[in-house]
Protein 1
Amino acid sequence: TVQIDQFMCRSDNFGVLVHDAKSGATALIDAPDEKAILDAVKRTGWTPTLILTTHHHVDHVEANLALKQRFGLKIIGPEAEKAKIPGLDETVGDGSVFQFGGEEVKVFSTPGHTLGHVSYYFPASKVAFTADTLFALGCGRVFEGTPAMMYASLQKLAALPADTTIYCGHEYTETNARFALTVDPTNPVLKQRAARIAALRADGKPTLPTTIAEELATNPYLRAHDPAIRRTLGMESASD
Ligand code: ZN
Ligand code: FE
């Protein structure tokens, strides 16, 4: 299984290094910030060989070309956004599978935030990188797709095994928790989680990663079927 190092980039982006000790292969999940990434490379001693791009937004691809020049690494990203992602070598789409180190990586297309957004799933390591689709207690803003498209993408991720660890693109959890409490105010698990999140943020600590199990229990975007949420919203008979 892979080793993972998560670090802050820009103001609220996460950078993530995924390392296979046996082969030495190291993947960056997106490339938000050259300096923060170089610091993480130095700290871990893991030289990046690959960037796995989730979508074309500048806060996810800005360091692509600089890192490619420095490390000669390969860049993989969504076919549907290939014109907008600098330095792409290989494209993927829904259902694509490739090898990283000794294990398989599966690609899910998760459109909504952007039309080509993809998420990367490492089944053997039980970890998925959902960037700006699924957040802790929230989901990405629907910029290019439709709410129905985003909902279908979230349902795809919700179907992963409950013990899957989830890394996301941004530290948005505290404001997401405030919103979640307005639609699901009687959920005791959510209330406990919100308190834990506030304590972590007060300490300047990240609230990620999360798990599918934790999101199923507390994230309102995965709980549209919940009778208490439906009652609170006065939408008992609406579709999910
Ligand atoms: Zn984005
Ligand atoms: Fe982003």
Protein 2
Amino acid sequence: MEKEECIFCKIIKKQIPCDMVYEDDKVIAFNDISPEAPVHVIIIPRQHINNVNSLNQDEAELIGHIFMVAKKIVKTLGIDETGYRIVSNSGKQGGQTVEHLHFHLLGGRMLKWPPG
Ligand code: AMP
Ligand code: ZN
């Protein structure tokens, strides 16, 4: 399922360009257009899922796969040892602005905690 107006579905369909970092048959990863850190990659499933609320049990493997992809990317970008953060914002108070499940992969600098 995909949403006509979803910006990330448009990236997947190559209707909008992106700075691709990784792709396979299940997920794509690209550099965030407005990076908050030297490394700021967005990892998304090709399948349109709104956010964590809409996850089904049969998508559990897909979420596991996303983390395996994150592991590959941090190694490739050389931040596996220095550290990084993987974040998925859900809903208004979670700060979600794009309603297509995505994981921010942030690194390359000392990250503050807790987030604002
Ligand atoms: P969130 O605010 O958690 O929903 O994250 C959405 C992220 O997508 C933000 O960090 C945006 O900068 C990023 N973003 C929005 N449009 C694009 C785009 N066309 N290409 C790359 N990143 C984008
Ligand atoms: Zn979508």
